[in-house]
């Protein structure tokens, strides 16, 4: 298995874990103090969208002004707020579609750009694999947290 396939497999594993959690919740069920399950999915979709922008910029050799440079908390609030009017079903479809779009782009990043180190819009830096690990681990962490909340009767 090459690096791209390994990364995509990690995204698939984190998504499967999250799907298992989604199947156990009601769309309006409060998961976090201020978020329902729908809003948690909107949050993950928002970060998938950010990764899509970064990957497109890398593929096209351009610099992208990322919304997350204004701060991660502000980005989280905005990405959830912009999806507030969407139905749960629409959010669910978007959550799935954004991941597929991201995986397609992972396959398209030129080899030389996969290993090049670049600054991350939110601070720090690394190569594509290191950046992507942040996001499959991010979804996995949410899945584990929500699983724990559900196990406690939340």
- Report the major sheet: 2 strands, antiparallel
Q: What is the CATH superfamily classification? A: dinb family like domain
- Overall pLDDT, averaged? 91
What is the CATH architecture assignment?
Answer: Up-down Bundle
Q: Find the structural class using helix and strand composition.
A: mainly alpha
Number of domains: 1
Question: How many angstroms does the end-to-end distance come to?
Answer: 39 Å
Number of strands: 4
Indicate the percent of residues in helices. 55-70%
Shape: globular
Order of helices and strands: HEEHHHHEEH
Widest β-sheet, arrangement of strands = 1-2
Low-confidence stretches: none
Instruction: Please tally the helical runs, counting DSSP H or I stretches of 4 or more residues.
Output: 6
Rg over CA atoms: 16 Å
CATH topology (level 3) name: Four Helix Bundle (Hemerythrin (Met), subunit A)
CATH class: Mainly Alpha
Hey, roughly how much beta strand do the residues contain?
5-15%
Describe this structure in words.
- This protein is mainly alpha-helical.
- The protein has one domain (3-151): dinb family like domain (Four Helix Bundle (Hemerythrin (Met), subunit A), Up-down Bundle), CATH 1.20.120.
- Helices cover 68% and strands 6% of the residues.
- The protein has six helices and four strands.
- The chain has helices spanning 3-22, 37-60, 72-81, 88-108, 111-115, 128-151, and strands spanning 30-32, 35-36, 118-119, 125-126.
- Strands 1-2 form a two-stranded antiparallel sheet. A two-stranded antiparallel ribbon has the order 3-4.
- A hairpin with a 5-residue loop joins β3 and β4.
- α1 packs antiparallel against α4 and α1 packs parallel to α6.
- The radius of gyration is 16 Å and the shape is globular.
- The N and C termini lie far apart (39 Å).
